[in-house]
Design brief:
Shape: elongated
Distance between the termini: 32 Å
Order of helices and strands: HHHHH
Helix content: over 70%
Structural class: mainly alpha
Strand content: under 5%
Largest sheet: none
Number of strands: 0
């Protein structure tokens, strides 16, 4: 786990876990606070359409998720390089490391999307950030508890979304 070539799946799984919680809280707060502060009516009264308003918020949250993932992976790689150099471990990387890293960062950001959408839906539906945060986190924890059972029952379900190993070509 300490070698840079092996840190990708571990680093992305840590980023995915913490990032999901952070994004649920941020998303529900961003949407829910519009109701609490009364800014939603003002913005919509100025002529900004609901689609543009919601789309802009989703784009900003997606950019935040991407930056969060990239910074988290770079931090994991940096720490792995430091520990590997101190412990005199092999620091070589596979030839396709950058391509696999970019692909796995994209997969990780993609796994954030349902949690962002759910937290936004709940915050807007309940006109409260607290409802979006509480229910979003409950769903996140329920999915975490159910995932091992789904993997055990259904052989087609992968155990993790951030596997550093390339997928076998489909026949």
């Amino acid at each position: 786990m300490l070698r840079p070539s092996q840190v990708m799946s571990f680093g992305l799984s840590v980023v995915s876990g913490f990032g999901s919680v952070l994004l649920i809280v941020l998303t529900a707060s961003v949407f829910g606070n519009e109701f609490n502060w009364g800014t939603l009516r003002v913005i919509l009264a100025l002529g900004a359409g609901r689609e543009r308003f919601l789309g802009a918020k989703y784009i900003v949250l997606l950019l935040y998720a991407t930056v969060l993932t990239v910074v988290g992976v770079l931090a994991a790689l940096l720490c792995s390089e430091i520990v590997s150099s101190i412990a005199s471990l092999d620091r070589s990387l596979p030839a396709d490391f950058a391509a696999q890293l970019a692909l796995n960062i994209g997969r990780t950001v993609f796994t954030f999307l349902p949690y962002i959408a759910l937290a936004a839906f709940l915050a807007v539906g309940a006109t409260s950030g607290a409802a979006g945060i509480a229910t979003g986190l409950a769903v996140f924890l329920a999915v975490g508890l159910a995932r091992p059972h789904l993997v055990a029952v259904h052989p087609g379900v992968r155990p993790t979304t951030n596997d550093a190993q390339p997928r076998a070509p489909r026949a």
